[in-house]
Amino acid sequence: VQLQASGGGMVHTGGSLRLSCSASGFNLDNYGIGWFRRVPGKEREWVSCISSDGSTFYTDSVKGRFTASRDHAENTVYLQMNSLKTEDTAVYHCALYMGAYYSGSYFYSRCLASADFGSWGQGTLVTVSS
Q: Which of 59, 65, 129, 123 is nearest to 91 (CA)?
């Protein structure tokens, strides 16, 4: 399975975008999803995770501004991004969590480590200009 992130674009600082993550022909319901971003020349950065039961986790720099959610009927996971900053400019990817789920804290630790994620697809570019 390959996940597809979409919804990127160009906005000014303070603007909003909503990213979507979908997988054709694959049910995302029972899987955690991670959002990551990469700036050219820099390492990939973990942004957010949402577990299969809807628990959400965020890196400090986006807390209070980004919100992950999932729509089971649409088989889609979203990342609502508000109050965007120029430093949010990056290619955003979503990925499928393929590891074990013992608890929310364990899942969070795997998100922090960007571990046990796969099914990476093409990302979507978010550009925030001042």
A: 123
